[in-house]
Amino acid sequence: MNIKVVLEYDGSDFAGWQQQANGRTVEAELKRALREITGKDLTVYAAGRTDAGAHAEGQVANFHTDGRITPRRLVAALNARLPEDVAVLSAGAVADDFHARYSARWRRYRYRYLDRPARPALERGRCWHVRGPLDADAMSRAARALIGKHDWTTFCSASEPADGRVRAMRSANIARRGDGVELELVAEGFLRGMVRSIAGALAEVGRGERPPEWVGEVLRERDRRQAPRTAPAGGLTLMEVIY
Would you say the C-alpha torsion 145, 149, 151, 154 has a positive or negative sign? Predict the structure, then answer.
């Protein structure tokens, strides 16, 4: 049976999603819990590999089981074994050819800035506290250049293959909410470092350090040497994966 699960997690104490030799990861915690339940080492596929310190409200993963435990029971069993900073929200049987990553059509990320004078207490580790007020209107104008299909070389990690850096961005929205500003991006896929680099560029515009048209200019240059400062991971959350 192919099982799809939706998870949320606080990434503050994780070295990212992907299992690694050193460092605590979300994938390793999920696989450990599955091993305790099934007695087997299962292969888990995720919709996206979130960065160290980044969060998720709608991460999707899938794995194959022998079907002895129902999806409904699996939710309770997993949550009883997962640490407090990870929770399975739902589980369901899906078609055998469903793949959390390759079946996904769009992914939605949110980046949160806090631009009030006082540092955060309740939201620490969940936003980027920037100095000085941000001009959300200027940021919104700058973000328009991101919509469409582009080569994202300027805004992705140099480790990404040069022939695989083209992605379609469906929407890029900026809105002021309370004491902060939120960036929401929806794209068919995101390259390593891409959202945080975009968030860093828009912060420069919001502070008045760059004009709004600068974001489109550096995007078209496709030059990592012009990459803006990367925003901290704590403000980043994978909100939803759309199939």
Answer: positive
Domain ranges of the chain: 2-94, 106-242
At the topology level, CATH places domain 2-94 in: Alpha-Beta Plaits (3.30.70)
User: What is the pLDDT at residue 31?
Assistant: 98
Q: Does residue 242 carry a pLDDT above 90? A: yes
| Whole-angstrom distance, CA of residue 13 vs CA of residue 10 | 8
**Which residues, listed in sequence order, are joined to residue 238 by a DSSP beta bridge?**
56, 109
Catalytic residue annotation:
51
* Closest to 59 measured CA to CA, from 67, 48, 68: 48
The pLDDT score that the predictor gives to residue 227 is 81
Cα–Cα distance, 114 to 128 (Å, whole number): 6
Domain at 106-242, CATH class: alpha beta
Summarize pLDDT for 210-225 with one digit per residue, the tens: 999 999 999 999 998 8
What pLDDT shows up at residue 21?
Answer: 87
- Report residue 114 as tokens: 């806090």
